[in-house]
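Field notebook, page 132. I keep forgetting to write these up properly, so this time I am using the form the group agreed on. The chain and the ligand, adenosine monophosphate, are recorded exactly as supplied. Prediction of the bound pose follows.
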Amino acid sequence: MATIFTKIIQGAIPSYKVAEDDRFYAFLDINPLRAGHTLVVPKFAEGEELDYIFDLDDETLSAMMVFAKRVAARIREVTGCARVATVVLGLEVPHVHIHLVPIDSEADVDFRAPREKLSPDEFASLAAKLAM
Ligand code: AMP
């Protein structure tokens, strides 16, 4: 069965897309720690999704980080944050993903903190600004 992220990549579930190429997809996290919190995911064949980032082959892992680097640069440019934190948890969705979180301090990357609430219009306008 396809993961929720594969369904997002296929367009079966809507998302606020930020970037895409033939191998990777980036979209806004629906429950952001801060506005601009983005997820980067690899495209897998349906039903063959890997769950754990370090199960990726070396070349795919490297290419994913290079893709994430481009997205992170864009997040920093648009949000004006000091840095973009790169976090891998993967405890909720069993499909490899990297969190890119715009931060100005360590407190901005506390996954136990309350999430920011954005309206659909705010998500859409942010995604349009970040779009590459
Ligand atoms: P984790 O697997 O612990 O790294 O967390 C998964 C992340 O995916 C969480 O931050 C969720 O808010 C996010 N998420 C889950 N479903 C969606 C969705 N449909 N669209 C965007 N983000 C999602």
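OBSERVATIONS:
- Residues 18 and 130 are 6 Å apart (CA to CA).
- Helices lie at 4-10, 58-79, 120-130.
FOLLOW-UP: compare against the apo run.
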